[in-house]
């Protein structure tokens, strides 16, 4: 964990949000939800925020409304991408507000990273083991939200997001701050040779062998990618919480054998 940034859990309006203390002190709207404080029934209990997992849509909409009350933003501020485990980046403006907020059909198609410099939009992504990466450019200002599974990580999606911010907004990577949220840890993320082969070269240190099995550290891989993109190590803050180990607090796709809810990560100016 870099200096000056620490992930802490806060309860607001019955919803538990994991936030970076430095950003919270600045009033930046952001956080990663826990699975508690909603209305969904098992196995989606209880704050499931994903409309695509088989839960009652009415429960999911109520859960999203509860999240928005906790953030003190209207539901129409949310902007979601239709995540495809890829590496595409979308530039979001105020005109996109509400896309994917209350229906999956109108989400921004085919993207796993959202960036904006407009005040108003609250970038919204769904997670259950994959890595939420939140970026703040305090100078422009601008923000990014990235959904980084193993495929997105292998395709260096965080670097693509930073390049997009640089090209579109004039962002300077060395001035940015990044927070890597709760995700499946290297303790639990066993992978096969097919996945491991995608992490050769300079990303190979993210792999470890234990007892003849291979384990991938997606947190470490994304931290390395952020540093390679120009972020100082002290500006990158990790939540060292494994979603698979802490299923009482988080949803885990692996832990739930594919049938589980989704947390949300959010950030906005």
Structure overview:
The mean pLDDT is 96. The protein has a seven-stranded mixed sheet. It is globular, with a radius of gyration of 17 Å. It has 269 residues and is of the alpha+beta class. The two termini are 24 Å apart. The protein has six helices and 16 strands. A hairpin with a 4-residue loop joins strand 9 and strand 10 (142-148). 20% of the residues lie in helices and 28% in strands.
Task: Map the helices and strands.
Blueprint: E1 7-12, E2 15-20, H1 21-26, E3 29-33, H2 57-71, E4 78-82, E5 89-92, E6 108-109, E7 113-116, E8 122-127, E9 131-137, E10 142-148, H3 150-154, H4 157-169, E11 177-180, E12 190-191, H5 193-196, E13 207-210, E14 213-216, H6 218-228, E15 236-238, E16 263-268
Parallel strand pairs: 4-6, 4-8, 5-7, 11-15
Antiparallel strand pairs: 1-2, 2-3, 3-16, 7-10, 8-16, 9-10, 9-11, 12-14, 13-14
